[in-house]
Design a protein that fits this description.
- The protein has about 375 residues and is α/β, with parallel strands linked by helices.
- The protein has three domains: about 210 residues, TIM Barrel (Alpha-Beta Barrel); about 70 residues, no CATH class; about 50 residues, no CATH class.
- About 40% of the residues lie in helices and about 15% in strands.
- It is built from 13 helices and 13 strands.
- The strands form three sheets. A nine-stranded mixed beta sheet has the order 9-8-7-6-5-4-1-11-12, with helices on one face.
Length: about 375
């Protein structure tokens, strides 16, 4: 069987340029803010329109560096009306004001109170929060959901309460999300020690009891007992688009553009690049020759794993927040096709009505 991607969600790395140098970033693929990029945005929009994803994540690099961003997002909204989520590094949210009419959710990346954020991202958390506070009236005027995403590590675990307080002092409507650092077995990961994981969940539950608006995406990672052997189901529901317009998924199970060999040659030469490429080709061939799908993957990540949790029936605070991005964009056929696929290959007890209730906000 050769299963085409549902493409409910697309993540477009709209630029490789950035004005920060964050410690967690893929520096091999990033470029300085002054770097010249020759990108045919119209062609990429046309490609995306062919998939018409219901949720479109705009990432980078730093999206605010794209002067044409308001026009790009406006055209996308007019073409197929997706839920648009923009990730911003906090250096200049005022640069995004012209794009606000077309944004549904703005996510600010921060890693804790000073001096932690300064060390990790090169900018103080106080300056980011002040800039965010200055544009809150405009954000509210356009009904944009605003969140702050914190990559949690052994270095900032104990500052969760302090940071949550600082975020809430800007606005009680801000959602603070905690994301585990990747890789999960790295030296900075709290997932390496059960006591640290327990400390995180205890602190998190305490913040919830105190009325803080918080969420986390740890559930999609902690369900794995062995990070070397994982199964990723959402890879058949999302696509990724590179800055140059290359379309791919984790499983490489849709047709790829034949351009941009230089970038992917670099990836091939990176650590374990050849092994990963061989594995993905083998997986694609196997999937095309049998009536089953190999969902195994070599890299654990937090990308859209809220869908995996729904498919498997695992509760999570992240599900209602992410699922509402599909609201008003799902058809009865979408639900039926998803139920058929999930029951056959993932979970025979899956009920698409559960997904529908999350999407509609009635669960």
């Amino acid at each position: 069987m050769y299963q085409k991607n549902f493409a409910w969600i697309a993540t477009w790395k709209i630029t490789r340029r950035c004005n920060l140098y964050c410690v967690y970033c893929d520096h091999a693929s990033m470029r300085k803010a002054t770097h010249r990029e020759n990108v045919d945005y119209s062609k990429i929009i046309e490609t995306l329109n062919g998939y018409s994803p219901k949720i479109l994540n705009i990432s980078g690099g730093e999206p605010s560096l794209i002067e044409e961003l308001p026009e790009i997002l406006s055209e996308i909204k007019n073409r197929w009306r997706p839920f648009i989520r923009v990730v911003h590094n906090g250096t200049g949210p005022e640069k995004l004001i012209k794009s606000f009419p077309f944004i549904d959710r703005l996510v600010i990346s921060m890693d804790g109170p000073d001096p932690i954020n300064k060390a990790n991202r090169g900018i103080t958390s106080s300056s980011v929060l002040e800039k965010l506070k200055s544009v809150l009236p405009e954000l509210k005027a356009h009904n944009i959901e605003v969140g702050v995403n914190c990559v949690l590590t052994t270095a900032n675990l104990k500052s969760m309460r302090e940071f949550a307080g600082q975020v809430r002092s800007v606005s009680e409507s801000l959602i603070l999300s905690f994301t585990p650092v990747m890789p999960p077995d790295g030296t900075l990961s709290i997932l390496r020690e059960e006591s640290l994981v327990q400390e995180f969940f205890e602190t998190y539950e305490d913040l919830k009891k105190q009325g803080f608006s918080v969420m986390h995406v740890f559930d999609g990672i902690t369900r794995f007992h062995n990070f070397k052997s994982i199964q990723c189901f959402n890879q058949y529901f999302n696509i990724r688009v590179s800055t140059e317009g290359q379309v791919l998924t984790c499983a490489m199970n849709i047709d790829l553009n034949t351009r941009h060999y230089v970038y992917y040659f670099r990836k091939l030469l990176a650590k374990n690049g050849i092994i990963k490429a061989f594995y993905r080709i083998k997986q694609k061939v196997a999937n095309s020759m049998q009536e089953s799908i190999d969902f195994s993957c070599t890299t654990v990540c937090t990308c859209e794993n809220w869908l995996d949790l729904i498919f498997l029936g695992i509760p999570s605070d992240s599900i209602p927040i992410y699922a509402r991005g599909l609201r008003g964009r799902m058809t009865d056929e979408d639900y039926r096709n998803a139920e058929t696929f999930v029951r056959r290959f993932i979970n025979p007890e899956f009920d698409s009505n559960v997904l529908k209730r999350f999407v509609d906000g009635t669960n």
